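Incident log, structure service

09:12 report received: a user says their structure output differs between two submissions of the same chain.
09:20 pulled the input from the user's history:
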Amino acid sequence: MRVLLEENLDWHLGRDLPEQQVESVPLLGWAGIQNGELLEKAIAAGFEVLVTMDGNMVHQQNIARYAIAVIALRAKSNRLDDTRPLMESIRVLLPRVKAGTVTFIPKS
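09:34 re-ran on a clean worker, output below:
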């Protein structure tokens, strides 16, 4: 599965999903692209999941109209020490995510 880490997340998180093909927005040269355009580019590039800490994205975009699943992390900060503990939950969730849906981790 192709997973895209948004620019607000450390690319090192991809190492915690070794069975997935994980890339990051900055390493693709897509830094600064707005949410709607980013979703479109990700879909066109074959990504199936976008992982973000941008909780506003899900309110600003109608995710249901996009052919990509979004996982929104709820952590104290976007520092690796705060986000890495959530990666096991993502690993378990990935086989079940569906395009056009948003899943928050941890769930509230």
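09:41 both user submissions now match this output. Likely a transient worker issue. Closing.
09:42 reviewer note: The chain has a mean pLDDT of 94. The radius of gyration is 12 Å.
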